[in-house]
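RECORD TYPE: inverse folding
INPUT: structure tokens
STRUCTURE:
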């Protein structure tokens, strides 16, 4: 299968939301309690990604990996979202100031380990450099196989946090990559 990465357009929002939902179910069932899924339904994801696909604020972009031949009638295989780092409540106020954040990176289940994540990651890094971010941060749930993906991409753990998802404690790690050397 051949595919390419391009900037998302508002017409992609529906497919992106579906990928987000399906990938969440595949990845976080048993990690997040069912109420977390109820609290972030497909309709809310559609709105979120429609808004983000139309967001032309500086330092932000939403990208999709699309198959040249649609799979099950849907060309979108995965997506990634980049923006300015959102300093967490538990962090010092200037943590990650001026840096970028990989806010989301999700592939359709069934499309893992084919290099699509790497392709989106590379596109995010290129965009982050264009925007002038000196580094990129991201948060990943502890134990998610994605930790090994980010390690393979050269991002290293720099912090951690534990938050409550509807009464369930969930540990997450912050990883960072310096874009002057990567
Ligand atoms: C994480 C994710 C984006 C990675 O994308 P991918 O296309 O599956 O990964 P790639 O094929 O590009 O892998 C690149 C390298 O990362 C490493 N890697 C990727 N997935 C891995 C895994 N499950 N276990 C160990 N190493 C892994 C490998 O070194 C791999 O190189 P190789 O295949 O030559 O060995 C994808 O698996 C995904 O969408 N997962 C579900 C959603 C998710 O957890 N998103 C991250 C939220 S923070």
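DESIGNED SEQUENCE:
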């Amino acid at each position: 299968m051949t595919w390419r990465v391009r900037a998302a357009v508002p017409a992609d929002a529906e497919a992106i939301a579906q990928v987000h939902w399906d990938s969440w179910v595949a990845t976080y069932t048993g990690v997040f309690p069912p109420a977390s899924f109820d609290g972030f339904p497909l309709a809310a994801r559609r709105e979120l990604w429609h808004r983000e696909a139309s967001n032309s604020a500086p330092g932000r972009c939403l990208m999709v990996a699309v198959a040249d031949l649609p799979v099950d009638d849907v060309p979108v295989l995965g997506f990634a979202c980049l923006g300015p780092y959102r300093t967490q409540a538990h962090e010092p106020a200037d943590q990650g100031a001026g840096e970028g954040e990989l806010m989301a990176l999700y592939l359709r289940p069934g499309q893992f380990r084919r290099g699509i994540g790497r392709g989106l990651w590379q596109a995010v890094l290129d965009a982050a450099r264009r925007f002038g971010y000196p580094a990129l941060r991201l948060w990943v749930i502890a134990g998610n196989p994605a930790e090994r993906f980010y390690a393979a991409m050269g991002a290293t753990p720099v912090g951690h946090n534990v938050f409550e998802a509807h009464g369930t404690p969930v540990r997450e790690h912050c990883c960072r990559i310096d874009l002057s050397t990567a």
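NOTES: The first helix runs from residue 13 to 28.
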